[in-house]
């Protein structure tokens, strides 16, 4: 299951993590986001020991979305050592997210 990442806990959970982090930027009204959500949750369960997997609701957490220039959703950012290392915009198959994560492990 993916963690709920907010403007308030973003720095601690994402920037302060010693593991790679995947963040799914999404919104309730976004159809493609509803396709990506279950994939991100699966990855969260499968990689719970090796990575932090979270979701940011862009409507409820505009500061984080603005900080990273999120203009299209779903957008998935891949962090390592507090820096964005990769990005996937739009809905994609699970293997594309997993391969990007694997490259950071």
Overall geometry comes to globular
Q: Structural class, judged by helices and strands?
A: alpha/beta
Q: What would you report as the Rg, rounded to the nearest angstrom?
A: 12 Å
CATH topology-level fold name: Glutaredoxin
CATH superfamily: Glutaredoxin
Number of E-state strands: 5
Main sheet?
A: 5 strands, mixed
Query: What's the average pLDDT?
Result: 96
Please state how the strands of the largest beta sheet are arranged side by side.
1-3-2-4-5
Unreliable residue stretches:
none
CATH architecture: 3-Layer(aba) Sandwich
- The first-to-last residue Cα distance is 19 Å
The number of helical elements comes to 4
Instruction: Indicate the CATH class.
Output: Alpha Beta
Oligomer status: single chain
Q: What's the helical proportion of residues?
A: 25-40%
Strand content: 25-35%
**String of helices and strands:** EHEHEHEEH
Number of domains as seen in the coordinates: 1
Description:
A 5-stranded mixed beta sheet has the order 1-3-2-4-5. The protein is of the alpha/beta class. 35% of the residues lie in helices and 26% in strands. Strand 2, helix 2 (31-46) and strand 3 form a beta-alpha-beta unit. The protein contains 4 helices and 5 strands.
Concise description?
With 105 residues, the protein is α/β, with parallel strands linked by helices. It is built from 4 helices and 5 strands.
What topology emerges from the helices and strands here?
Layout: E1 3-4, H1 10-15, E2 21-26, H2 31-46, E3 52-57, H3 62-67, E4 75-80, E5 83-89, H4 94-102
């Amino acid at each position: 299951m993916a963690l709920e990442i907010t403007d308030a806990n973003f720095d601690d959970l994402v920037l302060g993590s010693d593991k790679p982090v995947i963040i799914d930027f999404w919104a309730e009204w976004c159809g493609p986001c509803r396709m990506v959500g279950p994939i991100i949750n699966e990855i969260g369960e499968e990689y719970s020991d090796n990575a932090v997997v979270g979701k940011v609701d862009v409507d409820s957490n505009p500061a984080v979305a603005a900080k990273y220039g999120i203009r299209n959703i779903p957008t998935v950012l891949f962090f390592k050592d507090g820096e964005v290392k990769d990005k996937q915009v739009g809905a994609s198959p699970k293997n594309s997210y997993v391969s990007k994560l694997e490259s950071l492990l």
